[in-house]
Known about the structure:
The chain has about 300 residues and is α+β, with helices and mostly antiparallel strands. It has an eight-stranded mixed β-sheet with strand order 2-3-4-1-5-10-7-6, sandwiched between helices. It has a two-stranded antiparallel ribbon with strand order 8-9. It contains ten helices and ten strands. Helix 1 (about 5-25) runs parallel beside helix 5 and helix 6 (about 160-165) runs antiparallel to helix 7 (about 170-175). It starts with 5 loop residues before the first helix and ends in a 7-residue tail after the last helix. It has one domain (about 5-305): 2,3-Dihydroxybiphenyl 1,2-Dioxygenase, domain 1, CATH 3.10.180. It binds 2-oxoadipic acid and nickel (II) ion (NI). 2-oxoadipic acid binds near residues 54, 104, 229, 286 and 295.
Amino acid sequence: MPPTNPQLLDDILHGLLRRYGTRVPDVERVMEILRSASLIKSAEDIENDHIAFRTLGVPHLGIQSLEKIFLHVGYQRRDAYTFPHKKLDAFWYAPPAEHYPRIFISELRVEQLSPASQTTIASYVCQIDSDPVDQLDLNNASQVDNFLHTSLWRRPSWNDYEQLRQESEYAAWVIYNRYYLNHFTISVHNLPPPYNSVATLNRLLQQHGISLNDSGGIVKQSPDGLLLQSSSVAEMVQAEFDDGQGGIETHPIAGSYIEFAERRVLPAFQHLPATDLRRAHRREGFEAGNADKIFESTYTEQTHRIPKRK
Ligand code: OOG
Ligand code: NI
């Protein structure tokens, strides 16, 4: 199905990636590594496998709210994934045309958190008494873009952030980072060999100082062997918190990261010449076991391993 309005979708994605690029200096570092190794000429040569968002599972928000923006431009909801231990649920969405990224949206099961964390989250979201996406003109790209980059709640306090983080790293991430893009994903299988595998590309990235999430091992592989993923450790952003006295205090916290995905060719299409291979011939969707570890790219256990950049 073609996108109902390609310009609208292009504009929304452009706005998301522009903000993401300024918040995640690793994006430019990785582009430079790929350019220096002659794997790409410019960023446009990269296929964006998918982008991801995080949401709070509370009335009027969560997946059911955010997904409306993308369903409107022709995305289709596909498989569900559950992460009971992390108290998360997720869906992935297929794009309206092959050159657009897939979308992965997850949601925190707020009702399963401790009463203290639920009270903290409620103090931020309690004024939202209708779905804010319903107030938008979904055909207006700049309205949608503003919505995705404007807070729905007050500036968080450091105390609340830290209290949430001790129970759920994900909750703390969303309270501060909201709908900012959590990551974009380089389709590694489309890079020139031998860097068309995550194992090889990872070594190149690490040689150039990119830190990779090692939770569960650096390469996450699906049981069918066809989806391999790695991710950088989230970069720290200087975040401004409410100091409780009418002022602002700044603390470094986890922002966003970059993912690398290798989708291998499905057994039925392995006879095809490489030049004929399209998305439909490769492993689709996501894998809960891989995703479970990729979420940890923003967790303190990972970000604390990373030496500070000068
Ligand atoms: C998403 C983690 C999962 C994938 O590709 O499986 C994921 C997140 O960190 O919000 O990106
Ligand atoms: Ni991902």
